[in-house]
Design a protein that fits this description.
With 361 residues, the protein is of the alpha/beta class. It folds into two domains: 1-31, no CATH class; 36-349, TIM Barrel. 39% of the residues lie in helices and 17% in strands. The protein has an eight-stranded parallel β-sheet with strand order 9-8-5-4-3-14-12-10. A hairpin with a 2-residue loop joins strand 1 and strand 2. The longest helix has 28 residues, at 223-250. The model is unreliable at 1-21 and 354-361 (pLDDT under 50). The chain binds zinc ion. Zinc ion is lined by residues 140, 160, 162-163, 197, 199, 201-202.
């Protein structure tokens, strides 16, 4: 008789009669605690779509690729600046190449069949002219009072991260994604703003918090700028908690995972696990900077799961030039991450551009 049956059938211990506990209680006492999904998944893959991908990429190639590399967790682009599913949230821009397809739904189903953890990815940092026309207050404003055009794509506008665009519009997007696909989590890329925003909401909210006008520049020793950094951190924490709470209403074990948070100690305190998006180096940054990033996060996270979204390349004017990346450099970069306790998430952007074995890492 094994230990489980021994207890279930009742027994004599130390001369005393022990009544048989209920089966449910015995199971609860003896069943190994189930690992949460984010501790189970050891090898991740990130597939970041660009707008034209729904028409041109081969989803089955990627599902097969995940199988071949034994990935058991996946990050997939879903919404934000572009929706890769047939969204019904007003002004949530569907990819012009979507047609009647649902790339998110197809990929989620395929990944679930392989028992993978699924995290859906949003990118809230930019929007289109129709959003500008309907909600001009959603757009970020520069120090000289102009609405902020996107630095890389002049058809886009940069959104304010600290106001109703994120708190209301993106909350609606996240709720819809949870309703449609019930992923294990939502991960937001470029969600935390791009410097000081001078929109009407930021002016009012900063004044309400500190009785001050916004700092005129990002001068690190300026006491008003220091206050602004405090305000920004608390605003983003509020946003993190709001999205996390909405996500958990649909799936209690699901989590919101921010791509970066301004305070690493708070990151360690509040995150159950974290993605370290470390794919880029500039100038003469050495490979051990991947390890340094891991150590900095570990200082707050302790031994919680930390996943390294990797790829590496010099990030200058021309970005995402994966085809000229060097294998040896990627190996060193990854080894530095693994040696510091990070799990791996290979990252691939623009899946329609696959060539050869299709791996853009
Ligand atoms: Zn603003």
């Amino acid at each position: 008789m094994d230990r489980r049956n021994f207890i279930k059938s009742g027994s004599v211990l130390g001369g005393a009669i022990v009544m048989p506990p209920s089966l449910a209680l015995a199971d609860a006492l003896l069943a190994p605690a189930e690992e949460p999904w984010f501790n189970r998944s050891m090898r991740w893959a990130q597939l970041a779509f660009v707008e034209t991908d729904p028409k041109h990429y081969d989803p089955d190639f990627w599902l097969d690729y995940f199988k071949r590399v034994h990935a058991d967790g996946v990050l997939l682009s879903a919404g934000g600046v572009v929706a890769f599913y047939p969204t019904d949230v007003p002004l949530h821009h569907r990819s012009d190449w979507l047609g009647s397809s649902d790339p998110v739904g197809y990929m989620v189903k395929g990944c679930r069949r392989m028992n993978m953890s699924v995290v859906l990815r949003t990118d809230p940092h930019a929007t289109r002219q129709d959003m500008y026309d309907a909600h001009p207050d959603y757009i970020s404003v520069t120090a000289d009072g102009r609405k902020r055009r996107h630095w890389a794509n002049p058809a886009l506008w940069v959104t304010c991260a600290y106001g109703p665009y994120n708190f209301e519009f993106m909350t609606a997007v996240h709720k819809e994604i949870m309703e449609r696909y019930t992923p294990d989590g939502i991960f937001s890329n470029r969600w935390s703003g791009h410097g000081i925003c001078y929109c009407e909401h930021c002016v009012q909210n900063f004044r309400a918090a500190y009785g001050l006008d916004l700092p005129r520049s990002a001068e690190k020793l300026d006491p008003v700028y220091i206050k602004w950094q405090e305000w920004r951190t608390s605003r983003l924490k509020e946003l993190w908690f709001l999205w996390d709470a909405e996500i958990r209403k649909k799936r209690a074990v699901a989590r919101f995972i921010p791509n970066g948070f301004p305070d690493k100690l708070l990151t360690g305190k509040y995150a159950d696990f974290f993605f370290a998006d470390q794919q880029a180096r500039t100038g003469v940054i050495p490979p051990w900077s991947n390890a340094m990033g891991a150590k900095e996060l570990r200082a707050g996270l302790g031994m919680k799961s930390l996943v390294n979204i990797f790829s590496v390349g010099v990030e200058e004017e021309w970005r995402w030039k994966d085809s000229v990346q060097n294998d040896a450099e990627i190996r060193v970069w990854v080894a530095e991450g693994v040696a510091n306790g990070m799990r791996l998430a290979l990252s691939s952007s623009a899946p329609s551009f696959t060539t050869g074995d299709g791996c853009r890492r």
